[in-house]
Amino acid sequence: MSRLQTLLLAQVVAALCAHADVSVSTPKPKKVLDTIMEPKFIPPEEKIGLHWKRSAINTIRSKLQVTINENKAKNGILFIGDGMSVATIMAARTYGGQLAQGIGEENILEFEKFPITGLARTYCIDAQVPDSACTATSYLTGVKTKYGVIGLDGNVTRGSCYSQLYEKNWAPSIGHWALEHGLDVGLVTTTRVTHASPAGMYAHSSERNWESDADVPDECLAMGCEDIAHQLVFNEPGRRFKIILGGGRQEFLPNVTGSTGRRLDGVDLIEKWQKDKVERNVSYAYVNDKSELMKVYNSDELPEYLLGLFHDDHMAYHLKSSSNQPTLEEMVEIAIKMLSKSTKGYFLFVEGGRIDHAHHDSLAHLALDETVEYSKAVKKAKEMTNEEDTLIVVSSDHAHTMTVAGYPSRGNDILGLVDTTNGDDGIPYTTISYANGKAPSIGADGKRVDVSLHQMFTSRNPDYSYPSLVPLDSETHGGEDVAVFASGPWQHLFTSSYEQNVIPHLMAYAMCIGDEQHANCKSSGTNIQSSILYISIFSIVITIGLYYN
Ligand SMILES: *[C@@H]1O[C@H](CO)[C@@H](O)[C@H](O)[C@H]1NC(C)=O
Ligand SMILES: *[C@@H]1O[C@H](CO)[C@@H](O)[C@H](O)[C@H]1NC(C)=O
Ligand SMILES: *[C@@H]1O[C@H](CO)[C@@H](O)[C@H](O)[C@H]1NC(C)=O
Ligand SMILES: [Zn+2]
């Protein structure tokens, strides 16, 4: 090789290396804010290869312990984290770990311990990126429909009263199926109980916003279209729900002086709900706050029916709530305590509904905190139930535009600035940001805003809105798939990638309340009984085999 060739080769290699450096390695050194070559927070054991091999082998061993559970699921619990994208799960896990004084990334949310994970596609039949109404219809009734529509199939026009009244368009929910099979049913949410997600359990509304009669156009009321709160109290299946806990009192009370009620028909639906229980000679309780709820919880004899409305509007964010507002975990605890009395089993729907609201206001801190609260509620449900007879599914209705980006070092504050680099404009940036939302990343001067100069950011005020690329009054949903976590009978069916509307059908299959039935639906469904059956068949086969030999 000539000198020139050698020189050229060296140049090519150098160019390749430089290229590899840009595409593979992370921070650009010249932009380093604070040169941390070795992050502060690497646990010493993580530097040893053997640690990772051992932990992987432990994972293999624990996977090998998982056996196929084809029992009949006596009980089913569906948890939905509204707007809980996969990015939200990762960020909340890290936030939860850092709250507990850990490094963060290693933390595991409760549902991440479930043995089975799948992915659900969330689009509506007329929208690439869905809302909570069409998705609630999907994961609760098993039917995909149009944006903004609840409990009706796609043969409706949003806001058309005529198509709402046409009963063949109605899509009954898994809550309804469960009631028809003699199970008890409950719903728990942190939003108004008339909001889109919980409404999917009981309402048929061509417009998600028709929460009280004040929202329904007069011509629709004249045609006989009922608002969502009215449907919950008077109609099937809502009037037969044993547990209804959440916010939204304003949709149930008349708009009279001194009241926060919004109803214009003058009807007090809370009173009507109680009257219905009196007429049916069943025991009941209505509660307004946490102390009343705890009184019911501690009473010697639990009522058969419980209605709890803890706020006029949505319940307050956990970080901003009064001490007299129950947590999601507390609501789930009393719901399971009451529903567990059912000999035939139960279906419970639980929504962590305010993850979504926090994201819409780009309030990442609150969104992550609500997700941690949601995880605590899942933990409580797991502790109070047995995976031999209770199927728990944890998912989300749709994603959001929040991302976790940059190359922050290990253990860096998930709500803080990326600690390794600034932007190419020399201005620092947050690990968390939104594709769109109310806090534009470009200021009036045309320059990117420097959040480190915002006192609300530096003081960790939970009301601080994280920056976004496209200015929009309300940050939007995201269109990517959501994760599904399952534990309990038939959990293995929840693996792979599928349409969101499959979820209630899978749950109904496990619970023997759908069209498809498995072998254990006939027996009481325990493995012991099916094993005896298999052993008997096996013995007969062996006997016949021996005979013919
Ligand atoms: C669709 O709904 C309309 C009412 O809006 C009804 O007249 C029509 O029969 C429905 N079509 C089907 C296929 O059910
Ligand atoms: C009650 O009705 C009045 C008059 O229609 C309206 O101005 C007010 O906003 C209503 N209150 C609520 C809480 O909706
Ligand atoms: C109402 O229920 C109670 C106990 O559940 C029972 O003793 C009573 O006879 C019932 N009354 C009517 C009118 O059905
Ligand atoms: Zn939303």
UniProtKB/TrEMBL annotation:
E.C. number(s) listed in UniProt: 3.1.3.1
Family: Belongs to the alkaline phosphatase family.
CDD domains the UniProt entry points to: ALP (cd16012)
N-terminal signal peptide: 1-20
Annotated protein name in UniProt: Alkaline phosphatase
One GO MF term: metal ion binding
Enzyme class: hydrolase
InterPro entries, sorted: Alkaline_phosphatase, Alkaline_phosphatase_AS, Alkaline_phosphatase_core_sf
Cofactor: Mg(2+); Zn(2+)
Chemical reaction(s) catalysed: a phosphate monoester + H2O = an alcohol + phosphate
Classification lineage: Eukaryota, Metazoa, Ecdysozoa, Arthropoda, Hexapoda
UniProt remark on cofactor binding: Binds 1 Mg(2+) ion.
Residues annotated as transmembrane: 531-548
SMART domains, sorted: alkPPc
Binding-site positions, Mg(2+): 82, 195, 197, 351
Active site (catalytic residues): 132
Gene behind the chain: LOC113513129
